[in-house]
Design goal:
The chain is α/β, with parallel strands linked by helices. The chain folds into 2 domains: about 5-150 and about 305-334, Medium-chain alcohol dehydrogenases, catalytic domain (Quinone Oxidoreductase, Chain A, domain 1); about 155-280, NAD(P)-binding Rossmann-like Domain (Rossmann fold). Helices cover about 25% and strands about 30% of the residues. Strands 3, 4, 5, 8, 9, 16 and 17 form a 7-stranded mixed beta sheet that branches. The chain has a 6-stranded parallel beta sheet with strand order 12-11-10-13-14-15, with helices on both faces. Helix 4 (about 155-165) crosses helix 8. The two termini are about 20 Å apart.
Length: about 325
């Protein structure tokens, strides 16, 4: 039965304003949607870009949050594959048209009319939310809901970035060792890759954290690794890291920009790109990414580091992320 009452939610009303704790109606699912009772919602750097207005076209008012785990509370009339009581996850990509040239070409992550959870669609900083069931995933049983929440973006975008780095990247550099990198480092090390982690200069605690999770070398982002890298993934939203990463990869190597927003990239000499080095970005994710990654997460012994916040502490969680004061991921629990 659909809950037609009210719920608590943290609501964004526009640039320069803190999220407000409000009582709002529980949404009703449409035919393709499920109503989800939220158990956990991780806090992503993209949420920070939304509330800090680096991303400029959110729906308003908006309930942020796109790393959501919860239980199905009601199902729409056309929903197949999920039933009431199922535990599912909701990612950033919340809708695609299925008709544009990108959808037809298997590039739904580039859909011209895509909807994004916690940006153009209300998300999981709430007690309930609705989501298109076609873009939700079952959650591996080995993870509780708080552990699983960061897998829905930090894990998924990290995995897509990892795929873009190439299957032969034995020596893999990770710039910015936060929520995404700490999951990817474990997955890559589990698959036999050698990890080189770059943190803010002087961040000895972050470097120790990276070593605990499988990095064989750690250093500041201004340092040169002991070997030429086959590929590097940049998670920190700092454009100045692009020339540094290009200088660190070998000829033919790949630099992947894994974030949705980055500060301006400074000019750099062509010699850093020459000899067939590749610079590319990652945009969003596909459902195939989600299916593949969740299958890997069910088998790989990933240790997801989290710091738990109550729903009404969402602003404090965002402040901690902004200040770089987190190891792993912040997670809100209603």
């Amino acid at each position: 039965m659909v809950n037609t009452g009210s719920m608590r939610a943290m609501v964004f009303h526009g640039a320069g304003r803190r999220l407000a704790l409000e009582t709002v109606p529980v949404p009703a699912p449409s035919d393709d949607q499920v109503l989800i009772k939220v158990e956990a919602c991780a806090v992503c750097r993209t949420d920070l870009h939304v509330v800090d207005s680096d991303l400029t076209e959110p729906k308003l008012p908006l309930i942020p949050g796109h790393e959501v785990v919860g239980r199905v509370s009601a199902v729409g009339g056309k929903v197949a594959g999920f039933s009431e009581g199922d535990r599912i996850g909701v990612p950033w990509l919340g809708y695609t048209c299925g008709e544009c040239r990108y959808c037809r070409a298997g590039q739904e992550n580039l859909c011209e009319r895509a909807g994004f959870t916690g940006y153009t669609l209300d998300g999981g900083y709430a007690e309930y939310m609705v989501a298109d069931s076609r873009f939700c995933f079952p959650i591996p049983e080995r993870y509780d809901s708080v552990e699983a929440a960061p897998l829905l973006c930090a894990g998924l975008i990290g995995y897509r970035s990892y795929r873009m780095a190439g299957e032969h990247a034995e020596h893999l550099g990770l710039y910015g060792f936060g929520a995404a990198a700490h999951i990817l480092a474990q997955l890559a090390a589990h698959q036999g890759r050698r990890i080189y982690a770059f943190t803010r200069p002087g961040d000895t605690e972050g470097q120790a954290f990276a070593r605990r999770l499988g990095a064989e070398w750690t250093g500041g982002s201004e340092q040169t690794p002991p070997v030429s890298l086959d590929a590097a993934v940049i998670f920190a939203p700092v454009g100045a890291l692009v020339p540094a990463a290009l200088a660190a990869v070998r000829p033919g190597g790949v630099v992947v920009c894994g974030g949705i927003h980055m500060s301006d990239i400074p000019t750099f000499p062509y010699s850093l790109l020459w000899r067939e080095r590749v610079l590319r970005s990652v945009a969003n994710l596909t459902r195939r990414d989600g299916e593949e990654f969740m299958a890997l997460a069910a088998r790989a012994p990933l240790r997801v580091e989290t710091r738990r916040f109550d729903l009404e502490q969402a602003n404090e969680a965002l402040d901690a992320l902004r200040a770089g004061a987190l190891e792993g991921a912040a997670v809100l629990t209603p």
